[in-house]
Amino acid sequence: MYPTKILLATDGSEESTPAARTAVELANATGSELHVAHAISTAPQMPFPRHYERATTEDLLQRKRLAALTLLDEKVRQVEKMGGIVAGSYYREGDPTDEVLSLAEELGVGLIITGGRRLAKLRLFWARSYPMELFRRAECPVLIVRESKAG
Predict the structure, then answer these.
(1) Does 2.60.40.420 match the CATH number of domain 5-145?
(2) Of the candidates 10, 8, 67, which has an alpha carbon nearest to the alpha carbon of residue 38?
(3) Residues 85, 76 contacting (CB under 8 angstroms)
(4) pLDDT digits (tens, 9 = 90+) for 86-142
């Protein structure tokens, strides 16, 4: 009836904090394992014809990796500070949606939780955002948490 494993897919946005809070509350209430994941895109942003530009791009990717690992570590600490127990944390590179869905399948999670911005209903239908792609393509339920307006 309850998921036995919950995956918090974080992207570092403002919406990831309410998503983390919700993940902790659900994991604690249901006795589910809580896993935290962060995936970055490693796709080049544009073609680079010169060697210097490629070297610069590799340097930027290294900085992006370091920032992503730092963000994941901070999110794990935030979850623990909220009273959650993190069963595992995962860093992935590639297409973020593909990587999170692949990880969810590997772990056998019953629920993916992520943060997302509030969109107008018509835009929500056509949106190509990370949370909506997870929602559309996941084989398990996806909960997209948004900050309440009452704040």
Answers:
(1) no
(2) 10
(3) no
(4) 999 999 999 999 999 999 999 999 999 999 765 545 454 555 678 888 989 999 999
